[in-house]
Here is the input.
Amino acid sequence: MSVKLDHGMVERAAVGCVLRLPRVPHRGKLGEVRASSVGSSLELHDFRQYSPGDDLRHIDWNAVARTGELYLRVRQDEVSPRVEVLIDGSASMGVSDAKAARAREIAAWVCTLSRRGGLDPVLIATGTNVQKGSGPSTRALLENLAFEGKEPFDIALRRAPPLSSCGLRVVISDFLFESPPEPFAERLARGAAGLMLVQVLDEEDIDPSGGAGARLTDSESGDVLERILTPHVIDQYLDRLKAHIGLWQGAARRVRATWAQASSEFQLDALARRELSALVEVA
Here is the structure.
């Protein structure tokens, strides 16, 4: 399935929007924003008491001799906030042209807002192969991304390069795989000062109709589930979907992530000002 990325729409949706960054210190490469973490900069910033797990190389032994307490030298890192965008390239994200288009557009929109804010976007896309791009290459990666991965997002991401420390991580998926949300949310939050989870759903995900004789099919494995979509089966599905989304919302709160849901029936510019408004500030 090939869905053309509408760059014009992405640019229009970005007008007047500024990416909302976490209001905590960032960690990363040398840059303009200072962090209060213990680092390797030669500029001494402060002292603080030792906590279990701290790097013993930063202990100030003169302070220990004077006070009898363990104190660390806290130095200032100068770091540039880095934005990492993860997009689910599994087959479930390509069940319709609209769903695939919204996922691409949202990823491109976040990358565009990052660059406009002077930040360096890094894009990681799962699928048949895991792909990684940064800066201008994110555009070509999204244009050529085929949503045909046969593994659920959480499994496919294990083949990706280790997630790096970053100022902000934005994850775009339908989150409809079976793994427990909390452990995966904790994994996604690790190393990020801020985490945003964007659930992209198709109309059929939200309210399946199917039609007479339609059966449920697993989009990754192709397995047909022997359940005809009667009103009773649809009601069961909707109850399970609501419960599943509730678990993800709870996991997001636990790791202090922002949760947003985007329906593929709405265009990106409308989503940017409604469902995705938690990701941005109005310029």
In short: Confidence is low (pLDDT under 50) at residues 25-45, 76-80. The chain is about 30% helix and 25% strand. The CA atoms of residues 54 and 163 lie 22 Å apart.
